[in-house]
From TrEMBL:
Gene3D superfamilies for the chain: Ribonuclease H-like superfamily/Ribonuclease H
GO molecular-function term, one example from the UniProt record: nucleic acid binding
SUPFAM superfamilies associated with the record: Homeodomain-like, Ribonuclease H-like
Record-linked Pfam families: HTH_29 (PF13551)
Protein name: IS3 family transposase ISPa31
């Protein structure tokens, strides 16, 4: 959307270019405005209107949740029974009882607008982890290691496979296979 002062500037520049001998279409093209847009701008003479999309009043959608429905959703979500459950579990729980208040996404939307869309449940909230600071620009700069269980021929028995990996080239640098996990086999 181009605001009114910029439209007036564009119109004056295009008219100046046309008076200097430039074709109207080429002048509009240079400013990135289509010919039809320029014609719409100057249709009413010297009066240039603002873009109607930003000033128009739009009625609310007919299926928008009413304030009482929003309050009912918040009451259900904050009730003792559902206080620790996310909307993805609240909505099916209500559906099992034959109740339908709103869709799952509407529950999320209402909780977010009421600043209640946070970790819900008895489990601990996930803690943010720092971003990895290691950056390999060539081989043999950064190494990583991993321990993997490999099943043995006997059910319930496992071998521990230790692997050291070059982060840059993704080539395996060293491997060891042991019958039991040795905590000091690889330095940390």
């Amino acid at each position: 959307m181009i605001n009114v002062p910029d439209r007036l500037l564009c119109i004056s520049l295009i008219r100046e270019a046309v008076l200097s001998g430039c074709r109207l279409e080429k002048a509009c093209e240079q400013l990135g405005v289509s010919l039809r847009t320029f014609q719409r701008w100057v249709r009413d003479g010297e009066v240039v209107r603002a873009d109607g999309r930003s000033t128009t009043g739009r009625p609310p959608p007919r299926h928008k949740l009413s304030e009482t429905e929003r309050q009912q959703i918040l009451e259900v979500a904050n009730s003792a029974e559902f206080a620790s459950l996310p909307p993805s579990q609240i909505v099916p729980g209500l559906a099992d009882r034959g109740m339908y208040l709103a869709s799952e996404s509407s529950f999320y939307r209402v909780l977010r607008s009421a600043a209640q869309q946070h970790h819900r449940g008895r489990a601990r909230e996930p803690s943010p982890r720092p971003v990895t600071t290691h950056c390999a620009t060539a081989a043999n700069q950064v190494w990583s290691w991993d321990i993997t269980w490999m099943p043995a021929a006997i059910k319930g028995k496992y071998y521990y496979w230790y692997m050291v990996l070059d982060v840059f080239s993704r080539k395996i640098g060293a491997t060891k296979c042991r019958k039991r996990n040795l905590p000091n086999l690889l330095p940390c």
